[in-house]
TrEMBL record:
Keywords (A to Z) from UniProt: NAD, Oxidoreductase
Residue ranges of coiled coil: none
Mannitol dehydrogenase N-terminal domain ranges (all copies): 21-272
Gene3D superfamilies for the chain: N-(1-d-carboxylethyl)-l-norvaline Dehydrogenase, domain 2, NAD(P)-binding Rossmann-like Domain
Residues in Mannitol dehydrogenase C-terminal domain copies: 281-474
Descriptive protein name: Mannitol dehydrogenase family protein
PROSITE patterns: MANNITOL_DHGENASE
One Pfam family matching this protein: Mannitol_dh_C
InterPro entries associated with the record: 6-PGluconate_DH-like_C_sf, 6PGD_dom2, Mannitol_DH, Mannitol_DH/Oxidoreductase, Mannitol_DH_C, Mannitol_DH_CS, Mannitol_DH_N, NAD(P)-bd_dom_sf
Length: 495
């Protein structure tokens, strides 16, 4: 599609806030295409200029901070409804960009900003692994090196929980009310999990501080949704062809959703007028999204990648994979859900198929396949446990888990190599070296990973056998034959 054929709706230059009221940790693509867009719209609609954002990277990507500064802290969001319709927005709500990585110059500036009484909310998108929690139990990983560092060095933290504790300690000492902590990462009960990481770390530094945080700091949960692929050079080129030469730009789908628990003792932007849903309990929304959307994404990611497919839209166009998703949704995921009032799983998943089919996103399976050890417990395994206990089908989930285990070898089924990007990558490599030629032993070794598999699943022999059968079929017959064999109905439901 040539640039001239694309219908581009350009929004006017962004209005700028006058005061910073929010600090964001994790200046990634999602933050720029989701929270910042809602805040920009809220500013434009209400005129409330007190909710500007200070956004910081605390681990990597100093370059992005420098690029944003070089661009006057404004950047573009390209929202593709489809390959012919694009909404182009300019965002200006980020009024400060900091790099506070371990080697960064801005940690003190960040802590000072987080201690400022004008700052009433801290939001986070630091990925599921950025909280240093055991994905299965949700307990703080007190042996993880960055956490060991932060326990010993409370005033010069390297981690997100460490920065939150250090800033809250300063506010407590100054008599400044605490900020509200709003996690925007894809974790179950993400507010409670963030609270657990922060309180557990504080307890190892100063038990009185930990008690103060427990008693005074709000950690509302939120469900966040918008597909935002990592930017590629091809994306930058197609934006440049449209006259947008912006290294900090992001591409995303037109759809977006944000459901937030209403718990902001220090106040919050009036963002309900911009489509944010304020609720008392986020759980039904979160679980629905994590199991239906993210669970399906991970199925496509591992099985699609093993079949040598690169992007989501191509994978979901394959009848066998599309049939697998339908089976997973109807037989395995939806039965475990307590849906939000007024929601319909069938309608929701039909919309997901359309969103996944959006070929203007070029969403790479490799990106979704990243950090499986941090993602699969909430996407597949919690539901799997429930289904096992209720004697319900598991075939699609078992095929997914087997596909993930095979994916962690580091090659697809034709031998093409791919990177295994995961905090447990070394552990996986060791297990494949030790048990690579004995699939049954390999399955048992993976099931023994208590950071992922709950005890009941680990000890479930029929489940282990299902994984073994699926792994063998994948290796011997390939992805589509494995789907046909294990989920015969999948082919009946070809899209
Ligand atoms: P990204 O790769 O663009 O940004 C990741 C951000 O997390 C970067 O700022 C990076 O420095 C930071 N980070 C990574 N590991 C960290 C650690 N250990 N400690 C501190 N900071 C760390 O990725 P993107 O797209 O912004 O996604 C980030 C998170 O947002 C996801 O993991 C997910 O939880 C959530 N999300 C993403 C969506 C998407 O479609 N991209 C949609 C919904 C949620
Ligand atoms: C994806 C999510 O990379 C992944 O793991 O499944 O980032 C997904 O795009 C979002 O959650 C959609 O809201």
């Amino acid at each position: 599609m040539s640039p001239s054929e694309i219908h581009v709706e350009r929004h006017p230059a962004a209005r700028l806030p006058r005061q910073i009221g929010i600090v964001h940790l994790g200046l990634g693509a999602f933050h720029r295409a989701h929270q910042a867009v809602y805040l920009q719209q809220c500013l434009e609609r209400t005129g409330d200029e007190t909710w500007g954002v200070c956004s910081a990277n605390i681990r990597a990507n100093r370059t992005l901070v420098e690029q944003l500064r070089a661009g006057g802290l404004r950047y573009h969001v390209a929202e593709y409804r489809d390959s012919e319709h694009l909404n182009l927005r300019q965002i200006g709500v980020i009024r400060e960009a900091l790099y506070a990585g371990p080697d960064g110059p801005d940690r003190e500036a960040l802590l000072a900003r987080m201690s400022d009484p004008d700052v009433r909310i801290v939001t986070l998108t630091v990925t599921e692994k950025g909280y240093f929690l055991n994905p299965a139990s949700g307990e703080l990983l007190t042996q993880a090196e960055p956490i060991v560092h932060d326990i010993a060095n409370p005033t010069t933290p390297h981690t997100a929980p460490g920065l939150l504790v250090a800033a809250l300690a300063r506010r407590r000492a100054a008599g400044t009310p605490p900020f509200t902590v709003l996690c925007c990462d894809n974790m179950p009960a993400n507010g409670q999990r963030t609270r657990r990481a922060v309180v557990a770390l504080a307890r190892r530094q100063d038990s009185a501080l930990a008690a103060w945080i427990e008693a005074n700091v709000a950690f509302p949960s939120s469900m966040v949704d918008r597909i935002v692929p990592a930017m590629t050079d091809a994306d930058r080129t197609r934006l440049a062809d449209l006259g947008v030469d912006d290294p900090a730009a992001v591409v995303c789908e037109a759809f977006r959703q944000w459901v937030i628990e209403e718990r902001f003792p220090q106040g919050r932007p009036d963002w309900a007028g911009d489509g944010v849903e304020m609720v008392t309990d986020v759980t039904p929304f979160e679980t629905m999204k994590l199991r239906l959307l993210n669970g399906a994404h991970s199925l496509l990611a591992y099985l699609g990648a093993l079949a040598g497919i690169e992007t989501v839209d191509v994978a979901v166009a394959r009848p066998a994979l599309c049939g697998l998703l339908r089976h997973y949704w109807q037989r395995e995921a939806a039965p475990t859900l307590d849906l939000p009032a007024g929601s319909d799983a069938a309608a929701y998943t039909e919309r997901l198929l359309a969103r996944f089919g959006n070929d203007s996103l070029r969403h790479r399976l490799q990106q979704i396949a990243m950090d499986g050890s941090q993602k699969l417990p909430q996407r597949w395994l919690a539901g799997a446990l429930e289904n096992r206990q209720k004697g319900r089908s598991q075939a699609a989930t078992a095929l997914g888990v087997a596909g993930w285990i095979r994916y962690t070898v580091g090659t697809d089924l034709s031998g093409q190599p791919h990177a295994v990007d995961d905090p447990l990558a070394e552990t996986f490599a060791t297990l494949h070296r030790r048990h690579g030629d004995d699939p049954a032993a390999l399955i048992d070794a993976f099931l023994a990973l208590d950071a992922l598999f709950p005890t009941a699943l680990r000890d479930d022999r029929p489940f282990a056998q299902q994984l073994l059968d699926a792994l063998r079929r994948l290796q011997n017959d390939g992805v589509e034959s494995a789907i046909a064999a294990l989920i015969p109905t999948a082919s009946d439901r070809d899209a």
